Amino acid sequence: MSKSSKTRVGLMGFGQTGRQLYALASRSDDIEIVAIADIGDPKILHYLLGSEVSDSERYELDGNFLRNPNFSSRFMAIDTPAEVPWDVFNVDMVIDATGKYREAAAMEDHLHNGAGRVLLRTLPVDHIDRIVIPGVNCAQISAADRMISAASGTTTALCLLLKILSAQYEIECASMTTVHAYTSDQALQDYAGSDFRRSRSAAKNIIPNTHEAGAWLGHILPEFDGKVLTSALNVPIHEGCLADVNLVFADNSITVEQVNDAMRASVDAHAGVVGVVEDPVVSSDVIGSSLSLLFDTKGTIKAGDSIVKTLSWYENMGHAARLLDVVRLYAGLNSAEEAA
């Protein structure tokens, strides 16, 4: 961490997640985003930020600088990690919010250019130092970690649910389908893409899709390695997601109310990360929520002797908040090292 009292963050990508990260950081007293790499026109990037927040007057564009009452950020029209001069800005950590540069080699480019650490907003595609989910495995982080992932919003919601419930009841296996808002890498009209289904219009179709959470779960919760199947349905809404998780418990006597009570009891220990809702909510009700998991007690159903179906809501703002939490976790390690 730099000598400043704030953690200096470089941001790669100013899409939805990047803008949410910026807005959240602008209201913090411990993080400043000092540079933003994005090939978009700064005027358009500023316009998009203003269109998504309720207080757009807080954010001013001054040439290539985006300013708010707490800090200023330098826009750089740069497209790849290998080009960004992070050393000029003395950054403690880079958040790669593009979703494109998930390989270890790209993360190493950030490090070679002066980043102290690099944090992915997505799951990686190959070996890195650690996948960190606040509330799940943050006690395992190390000062030696340089290439880090904060997983994904879906992975975080699933891992929180599994960790909380498995602390009380043995779970033999599970399956999850995320009913997910369409994403920026999907076409709004039919367009030949990476596979047949993803070539269909995101605005007109429910599109079955794969999800990587199951493949990485063993790195986060080793006790669930190979025990959880994951998939996705991308649906024609722009925000708000739902994790539909079927849990197979070892004890057939576990009831719906026991599962709901376990989730209710977890809220205090996971303040700001996990919540429980008793009302009949829908996806638009969770837009803007900074929670990573909003457990829906009305969605809990027992099927047969040992299967319990659960529903949990989340949206991208919660994942942006957890990314900043990971930045804070590593800043705390740095401060402890300096104090020693």
Describe this structure in words.
- This protein is of the alpha/beta class and about 350 residues long.
- Helices cover about 25% and strands about 25% of the residues.
- It has a nine-stranded mixed beta sheet, with helices on both faces. It has a seven-stranded mixed beta sheet with strand order 11-12-10-13-16-15-14.
- Strand 1, helix 1 (about 15-25) and strand 2 (about 30-35) form a beta-alpha-beta unit.
- Helix 1 (about 15-25) packs across helix 8 (about 315-340) and helix 5 (about 155-165) crosses helix 6 (about 215-220).
- The two termini are about 15 Å apart.
Query: What is the name of the CATH superfamily of the largest domain?
Result: NAD(P)-binding Rossmann-like Domain
CATH topology of the largest domain: Rossmann fold
Strand order of the largest sheet: 3-4-5-2-1-6-7-9-8
**Largest beta-sheet details:** 9 strands, mixed
What is the CATH domain class of the largest domain? Alpha Beta
Order of helices and strands: EHEHEEEHEHEEEHEEHEEHEEEH
Number of helices: 8
Global mean pLDDT: 95
Strand content: 25-35%
Cα distance, first to last residue? 14 Å
